[in-house]
Amino acid sequence: MIKAKHKIESLEQKFREEMIKGRTKLEYDRNVLLSREDQLRQSMADLEQSAVAGTEKDIQYAMLEREASTAKDEYDTLLAAVKEVTINTNTASTTTSSTSTNGR
C-alpha cells in the first residue's frame, strides 16, 4: 500500500512537471506569435503608407504631364504664329522691294 501511494505521488509530481513544461512552451509560442503579429501589422502599415505615397506620386505625375502637354501646345501655337509673321514679313518685304524696283 505504501509503495502504491508513493507511486501515485511520484506520478502526480511528474504530471505537474509536464503540465508546467507544457504551459511554459505554450506561453513561449504565444509570445512568438504575438511578436509575429506585431511585425505583420507594421509591414501592413508600411505597405499602406507606400501605396498612399505611390498614389500621390501618380497624381503629381499626371498633373505634370498635363502641364507639359499644355506648354507644348502653347509652344506649337506660338511657333506657328512666328512662322506666319515671318512669312508675312518676307512677303511684304518682297512685295515692297518689287514695287520699289518697278517704280524706278
Q: What do you see in this structure?
A:
By secondary structure, this protein is an all-alpha fold. It contains 1 helix and no strands.
Which terms would index this structure?
104 residues, mainly alpha, 1 helix, 97% helix, rod-shaped
Short description:
This protein is an all-alpha fold. 97% of the residues lie in helices and 0% in strands.
List the helices and strands and how they pair.
Elements: H1 2-102
Q: Could you tell me how far the N terminus lies from the C terminus, measured between alpha carbons in angstroms? A: 152 Å
Indicate the proportion of strand residues.
Answer: under 5%
Structural class, please?
mainly alpha
Number of helices: 1
Q: Mind describing the biggest β-sheet?
A: none
Shape assignment: rod-shaped
* Unreliable runs: none
Mean pLDDT: 90
Helix fraction, binned, reads over 70%
- Strand tally, please? 0
